[in-house]
Amino acid sequence: MNTEWMARGKCQEVAPDIFFPSDGMGVLVAQKICAECPVSAACLEYALENHIDHGVWGGCSERERRRILRRRRVSQSVSVG
Ligand code: SF4
After folding, report:
1. Distance CA 22, CA 43 (A)
2. In terms of pTM, does the model score above 0.85?
3. Could you read off the pLDDT of 8-39 as tens digits, one per residue?
4. How far is the CA of 60 from the centre of ligand 1 (A)?
5. Were both Cys, which of 10, 45, 55, 73 would link to 20 (CB 3.0–4.6 Å)?
6. CA distance 54 to 33
7. For the CA of 6, the nearest atom of ligand 1
């Protein structure tokens, strides 16, 4: 998978541990940075495809990514029949 987008992430400008918060407030701080990131869509897709279950990626928390993956599984099973 292409990871060139990583070099353009907003998170390159801040401490990496910001994206591995321990509480909801920390998640909001990370999400604020992701909201201004030009590669957030690629970042989110990378985390989903690689089943990364720690940290904020593409503006989504672990819980939000689990929800997205669940929705995708449901819609795939509906379309497959
Ligand atoms: S979306 Fe967030 S975690 Fe992903 S590259 Fe951008 S700033 Fe970093």
Report:
1. 20
2. yes
3. 999 999 999 999 999 999 999 999 999 999 99
4. 9
5. 55
6. 17
7. 5
CA dihedral (20, 1, 44, 48) positive or negative? negative
Query: Rounded to whole angstroms, how far apart are CA atoms 21 and 41?
Result: 20
Our mutation pick for probing the ligand 1 site, out of 5, 13, 20, 33, counting the most ligand atoms within 8 A of Cβ, is 33
> Which tokens sit at 61?
């928390």
Structure tokens at 60: 């989504």
Euclidean distance between CA atoms 24 and 26, whole angstroms: 5
Cα of 26 vs centre of ligand 1, distance in Å, is 14
